[in-house]
Structure formats: structure tokens, C-alpha cells
Amino acid sequence: MTYSGQVTVGGPADVHELKDLMITKIAVGPMDNNTYLLRCRATDEQLLIDAANDAGTLLGMIGDDGIASVVTTHQHGDHWQALAEVVAATGARTHAGRDDAEGIPVPTDVLVDDGDIIRVGRVELTARHLVGHTPGSIALVYDDPHGHPHVFTGDCLFPGGVGNTRKDPEAFARLIHDVETKIFDVLPDETWVYPGHGNDTTLGAERPHLPEWHARGW
């Protein structure tokens, strides 16, 4: 079946099958958070992005193979409600942006900086530090050698705009700058975007609207 990226809380996961990586997306919790399970096809090692909520559902998706690591994209509570239980059940190493780790009530094993490489099996993900939604938000970029890039943006980029900066013009300026220079300026239109809530998009679908985002200030 063709991957759509459209998932609902209580509904089935959707699976994006790439040559080297399998990406499973599921929605959990009262804020309709997206959680992503990445599986290296060569080694079967798995990595979870945002243990947001409903640990039972997430552990069922992870299955008996477990996960080697879990990445929390940022410190907001709706993105780590199930983190403690998932880590306790799997023994996974925890990763988070250096400037957000103190706001996550589960110890962070690996403090992530801009440009750091996070591996799942033989697959490499590049972390991009994006400031504005929180001080230490990170996005993860998978530059698929067999196709276009894929980027997991947490709450920093959605269909229709960047993440919430709480009407703070300085925070918005920082976030739009980082999203433009570290995402839009270096990745092609075909790049698939997996956000922390809601449907997926592509950079090509969003790029024409960047001037509108600047003008409205959010």
C-alpha cells in the first residue's frame, strides 16, 4: 500500500518503506502526537522518535526486537509522556538536544548538538539544532542515498508554517532563520517532512509560502 502519512489516534500505523530504512508512523495521546519508529533493513536495529504517549501502543509497535535508542525532539511534555516506561522496558539509550535535556524528566544519555550523527544500524541521521520553539529542539535528516531526503522536524516545521513561538517576535525570527538556513536552503523540494503532529508534507509544497510566513510573523 502507498504511504500517506495520515494517521489518527487509535487507528493503525502507516509504514513508509524505503530501500534501507522502514519508517512506521503512529498517532498517540490527547494532543495527537506523531511517533516514528525507524528500522534499519540491513541490521533490524530500531530507533524511536518521540515516545510521546501511550507506552503500551508504542511497545506493541516496537515489538520483540526492541529499540537501541529513542530520540526526543524537544522538551515539551506532550513529546515524552511515555519515555520513562519505554526506556524501562527496552533499555534504550536516550538522545535529546543539549539545550533541552534539562527539561526532560528522564536522564539523557547522549546530548545532541547541531550536525551530530545518530545511527540506527547502518543508517545515519544528521541532527539539526533549530532554536525558537524551544531552546534545544532538534530535527533529524535522513539523506537517502537511493532517493530524496527525509526530515523529522518535531514541532519546528509543519504543513503551513513553523512551530509555535508564542507571539514572541524574537523567537519567531530565530526559528524561521534556522528552518530556512538548515532545512530549506540545503535540502531539495522533494524532501519529505515528518512533523510532530498532523499530516506529512514536502519542502516543495511549503517553500512558496515562506514569504507569507515572514509577513504574518508566525
TrEMBL record:
Signal sequence range: none
Gene3D superfamilies linked: Ribonuclease Z/Hydroxyacylglutathione hydrolase-like (3.60.15.10)
Record GO terms (molecular function): hydrolase activity
Domain Metallo-beta-lactamase: 32-197
SUPFAM superfamilies: Metallo-hydrolase/oxidoreductase (SSF56281)
Coiled coil: none
Keyword Hydrolase included in the entry's annotation: yes
Pfam family, one: Lactamase_B
Keyword field: Hydrolase
Name of the featured protein: MBL fold metallo-hydrolase
